[in-house]
Amino acid sequence: MTNVMNSPNVLDDGPSDYQKARIPASEFETRDDYLDHELKIFSPRRWKLNLPGRDFSFEWEDLVPALAGTIGITVMFSAVISAYAAGFGLDQAFVIENVRLELMVSATLFVILVSGFLNPRANLAGNHGPMIPLIGMIAASGGHPLALGIMIGIFGMALSLSKGGSKLVNLTSHGVSGGLLIYLGAIGVLSQLGQFKDWAIANGVGPVFIVVLMVTTVVYAYLAKIRKRWMAIPVCSGLALVISLAMGAPFEFVTSPGLPSFNPMYWWGETTGWKLGLPDLSHFIAVTPFAILAVGMWSPDFLGHRVFQELNYPKEAKNALMDVDDTMTSVSLRQATASIIGGGNVSSSWGTFMIPSAIAKRPIPGGAILTGVFCILLAVTGYPMDLTVWRPIMCIALLVGVFMPLLEAGIQMVKDNQGAETAGICILGSAVVNPVFGWALTMLLDNNGLIGNAERKNTLGIADRIIIPGAAFTLCTISMLLVGMIPGIPALL
């Protein structure tokens, strides 16, 4: 029987360019050479049907970012919904059901359909980690999750359609990018270490912290040495699970199989779901600064993820790099859709998928489809959700899969004294206020030759030097002033 996957597709007159350029892995001296070749010949169709065998392939390396992304997104979804639940007085059962809803909606409509089949250059629409600390403030200020989701979707689509996202990425130099990644990586590492240590001490298993971290450090270093660092999340998380259980750390399965409600009126009823009812005008006004801030954070977030591809992919693999504007479109649509159905997540580019995927030298679609399948299985079975949010697994997964790679990538991007100066200012601004402020301020200064390479301003027009960076800095600063994110200045709203 003819193999349909490898034969000319019935939708075309003959084999695709990808099919013509494919060479069996056995023809290459190393696996890395084969993966590099796959990236070079990858040429997906934008917002058209892409099929396995015709436009991309599945490789066993796709399993690692899929597992890492599934673990990471469940952790992040749980953090957002738990913060909302605390603010609105909702119980753990609500958190589990809403996380399940988010997993199902993300997996079916956007992870598999969009990033897997329709536009494999759009990174998966995941979670907006930097917004998690603000969830309590949103609830306290009279914000409504549905209003927030709709406003983020509207602002995000406006930025995407105007190509503003890619423009901001192109105006961010390596020094600014390096400083941003170093700060995010360092802060994330310290945060996860602190949370893991506190958890271990509180549960009477203090030695678990140091033993798991020592083993993780050795294994992570070895994986880096043999150039298999993309396996860090499943390997290190698995070791953390085994070691923690062996040393007596408390754990039990409590989440049973099931499906969430997909009825928006249940989630946005006055006595069911969120128990908030539908939002009114005051709710939309209250969430507007937070929505602007969330979308303002997207460009540096997307930039950090694309950088990993640029660092690990061959230079000829331009078609495999995530498209910032298409990713922004997908994230915006996913945000509005999931919020209307009943979800509470705040969306952004999916870092816990993209970072290991880039390190593994794989394009987006194969891993995206597998991630979507894993998310659906996780949501339906229920029990694995308890593992993904267990502190040893959660902290180790984020450490080796997100924050250490961020830190390392940032260091790699700082290549000279001028880059170090720019990175230092970015780190300072991020530490004083937050990463969005640090990024916007440093981009404005850098593009005008006030820091870093003084010749940079001569290569840019007035729009790229002043108007766009100035507007980004002004908009971000005003948004932070309104919601009280500038230290020492009370919220203006």
From TrEMBL:
Q: Does the keyword NAD apply?
A: no
Membrane-crossing ranges are 63-87, 99-119, 131-159, 171-193, 199-223, 230-251, 281-299, 364-383, 389-411, 423-445, 465-486
Which branch of life, at top level?
A: Bacteria
Coiled-coil blocks: none
Keyword check for Disulfide bond: no
Pfam name, any one? DUF3360
Its keywords, alphabetically, are: Membrane, Transmembrane, Transmembrane helix
Q: Please give the InterPro entries that the UniProt record associates with this protein.
A: DUF3360 (IPR021794)
UniProt protein name:
Xanthine/uracil/vitamin C permease
User: Which species?
Assistant: Reinekea blandensis MED297
